[in-house]
Amino acid sequence: MQVPLLDLKAQYATIKEEVLAAVSEVLETQWCIGGPNVEELEKQVAKISGCKYAVGASSGTDAILNTLMSLGIGVGDEVITTPFTFFATAGCIARVGAKPVFVDIDPLTYNIDPALIEPAITDKTKAILPVHLYGQMADMDPIMAIAGTYGLAVIEDACQSITSTYKKRKAGSFGTAGCFSFFPSKNLGGIGDGGMTVTNDEKLYNKMMSMRNHGMEDAYYHKSIGGNFRLDPIQAVALLVKLPHLKSWSNGRRKNAAYYTKKFANVERIVTPTISDDCVSIYNQYVIRVGNRDGLLGHLRASNIGCAVYYPVPLHLQECFADLGYREGDLPVCEQAAKDVIALPIYPELTDEMKDHVAKTVIDFLE
Ligand SMILES: *Cc1c(COP(=O)(O)O)cnc(C)c1O
After folding, report:
1. Distance from the CA of 86 to the center of ligand 1, in angstroms?
2. From ligand 1's centre to the CA of 364, what distance in Å?
3. Which domains, ranges and CATH numbers included, belong to the chain?
4. Which pTM does this prediction carry?
5. Which of 79, 129, 137, 233 yields a CA-CA distance of 20 to 30 A from 351?
6. Which residues line ligand 1 (CB under 6 A)?
7. What is the DSSP annotation of 118-171?
């Protein structure tokens, strides 16, 4: 039996006619940039996130980039973030000319450890950029408290956690702004790249709307230097077809997670995901920890079971950040996690047979 890590064809089969009709309509009208479909998606994503405003973006990366640029974060500034995330989080900080300052993670949730943020604050710190990893939100109360004390912006990287909650409030609604990705593998994935920033700050919203279009307000008059960070209507219509299914797809992932976690409950060599009592995860990934991770990875691949490591190299040890001066051993919790974690197939279309097969193959190898 083959079990891929993700099966987007299985999802597409359930919505194919609607997606084709919606895309075809965009092509018939040739309204290929901006317009009512992008606005409608922005309205709906703002609503499901509990925010007033949303600004579509060409990717999750560009959503983060536009947010940082529009907040005026740049050369000489520092942004505190986690080293255990997809590269884009810190890549965007560096691209605006600011310095990513990495602090270690919580060993159970893999999210930024709030207790380590305050000691990392300097007079150059402008923002905290927590990531809601694998579908679970970071511990937001202490993060918001520290940000309040020091007057820092908070940008939530919610790219893996759209509609995930912390104390019943949605991802993206805590900070100054929250960023989503519609990369096809995310819980709400487009048919290509896309992203969005949500915020309750009207001034930031207006700035971002201009910055995504080269900082233009009146046609061809530029007060600021922005970029082309626009979301395509083709993506917007596909996402509008998928959005009503997001809740049930995320429920399906949660059910699958519970299924695995029960199967693994008595296997000492497997550490199953810890979801805080404050959080409801959308399980963008189901990540376990094991001693012989690379052995398991090879065994699963040889058994035609999809799996992946998110992420094998902590960002503070990436070659491109060598000039930041971090050394191996500086952020030990994250470094250990990078050696132990492995993601298993969790997508909602998995059958019980598939999950049984994945669980049995994992357990057989480890025992
Ligand atoms: C996917 C992702 C991004 C970037 O999103 P893209 O749409 O691929 O640009 C940023 N941060 C995290 C944590 C992500 O998972």
Report:
1. 6
2. 34
3. 8-103+110-244 (3.40.640.10), 245-366 (3.90.1150.10)
4. 0.98
5. 137
6. 59-61, 85-86, 88-89, 131, 157, 159-160, 181, 183, 193, 195
7. GGG--TTEEEEE-B-GGG----HHHHHHHHHHHT-EEEEE-TT-TT-EETTEET
